[in-house]
Amino acid sequence: MSTLVPPSKEGSSNDHEDLALKEARITPIRRSGFPIGRRKLFVITGIAGAVAIVLALALGLGLGLGLKKTSNSSYVTTNSSFLLDPNFVVTSTPTTRYYEFVISEAVGSPDGFQRTMLVDQFPGPLIEVNSGDELVVNVFNQLPNGTTIHWHGQLQNGTNYMDGTNGITQCPIPPGMNFTYHFTINPNQYGTFWYHAHASTQYTDGIYGPLIIHSPSEPIYGQYDREALVILSDWYDVMSSGLLTQYLSTAGIDGSNYGGVNPGAEPPPDSGLINGKMNGSSFDLQPNLRYRLRLINMGTLTEFMFSVDSHVLSVVEADGTSLVPVDVHRVPIHVAQRYSVILTTNQTAGSYNVRAEMQATCYKLGNPNLNTMVLATMTYGASPTTPNSQDWSDAFPSLCLDLNNTMIVPQIPMNPPNSTDSVQVFMSFQQTTQSGGTQTLAFMNSTSWKRIAQILPLLQMSKLGIQTTFDSSQLVVVHDNITVFDLILNNYDDASHPFHLHGHVFWIIGEGDGDYLSGVSQLNTTNPPRRDTLTLPGYGWVAIRFITDNPGLWAFHCHIGWHMAAGLLMQFASLPSQIQQFQIPSYLSDQCAQQSGGLVVN
Ligand code: C2O
């Protein structure tokens, strides 16, 4: 049995977590090609630090002199061109892997426009593990605000409290403190994953990186010679906190740059990046090898269309599920999704364009200054030159949708069991006056999620189990026994939305236009696609099925940063009686108790 817990009326609380953020901001300065600073060398402390940097520039010292650029520039490209180490030992014998992140404000200019970023390095350090390994990441927070790190796609079976979801499984790591994430990579999980800050829109400012899980049991293991990361992200030239305040305000974002006032329209990005650079990344490959390119969209708003001139891409993985290979020229990839494609370096030696075209037609509001064609260079068998290769002549319809589900056929077939429970959810954007002025917020049914100043929901459940009551801004579906569950999600918005479920791999059993109609809408239960992030079509519906066998409180949300911050999030609370057995580390509850307002558990 499921219990749907949205108390009927809207909450009166107006503390959308995002409005509370007050990050130091400096005016961006145009300055090309300067790399992102690493760790303390480039820490600027608030306005004083920013002023010092601006001064250094004005004096003509340049940051390189004034602040000592290290030879170990923070662009990971300087080390490896984002090629994975072919000597990494893939084994089924687990080990423990330790990492340390120091997250701070730093100055960088990934697209040539200098701004404050939030980073360890950019993109974040590669975490590379085998299935079954134990992962220990000690995160030091040197930001002026709290943060958390979420391990996107990790099942976290038995360790929901390591999921890193601000306001749900964890209170933010206070400034100046650290938090040790410690969990086991599921022995049956492998593929391409990532991690990112999960507090407000912080990841938009740079806190994200790749997490790769190898396994000799991965069906596509051994079908390629080398591997490379292809990290795609959209990028803004100012801090997300300021954009978010505008986005959630009555007037909406300042439309003067975009041709008008636009309440409810998402801020369009200023540029796009491949492996942390605009038009500067290079893939230096060897001829006549099969490369597994691991595409990850770490962006905030943008769906990319990925292609490489003259090279067919064989799609073999979607979000950790190995696929029956399918050849394409272009791959659409929405926010938070991953694909692996095999590319064979068997064409004429030379340089080719790698293209990540930003699907700007999917935005509510365009940015006339945005160059939507983001390029990198792939070279083999010759010295790199500026490619004069041509784009594929066949277009892929830019419909703001995923690859067709018929192309996502898992290599290990699995038919979902019959469902034993289901819920319909309707997502929409609505004007509300709950915070005083008129605002456009996002709703799941009648609920707009807020990280509220109440006891952390997970800590509360660990004390009270199924008797827990949730604040009225929390839409929570509770299952107190293992259920095969169908979630039917209807979209009352014209735009498509990439939805992600924490802690699970779901089956996509249906999708269509308009509303889902029980008994009429077609469902497919024969080896349907399995993944963790899917695109809900504009004015359409999707049906996903999953098994509620993973104890914990799991977020289900649109991964567009602006939408999540506007409340487009609900939760699943699975097996409360097992949540009560969790050995939650005391530092987690201690950090909750330290937050302003004193979130003390009973
Ligand atoms: Cu990438 Cu809530 O997650």
UniProtKB/TrEMBL annotation:
Coiled coil: none annotated. Residues 118-217, 228-381, 467-576 form the Plastocyanin-like domain. The chain crosses the membrane at residues 41-67. SUPFAM superfamilies: Cupredoxins. InterPro entries: Cu-oxidase-like_N, Cu-oxidase_2nd, Cu-oxidase_C, Cu-oxidase_fam, Cu_oxidase_CS, Cu_oxidase_Cu_BS, Cupredoxin. The keyword Glycoprotein applies. One of its GO terms (molecular function) is copper ion binding. The keyword Membrane applies. Keywords: Copper, Disulfide bond, Glycoprotein, Membrane, Metal-binding, Oxidoreductase, Transmembrane, Transmembrane helix. It comes from the Eukaryota. PROSITE patterns: MULTICOPPER_OXIDASE1, MULTICOPPER_OXIDASE2. Belongs to the multicopper oxidase family. This is Multi-copper oxidase.
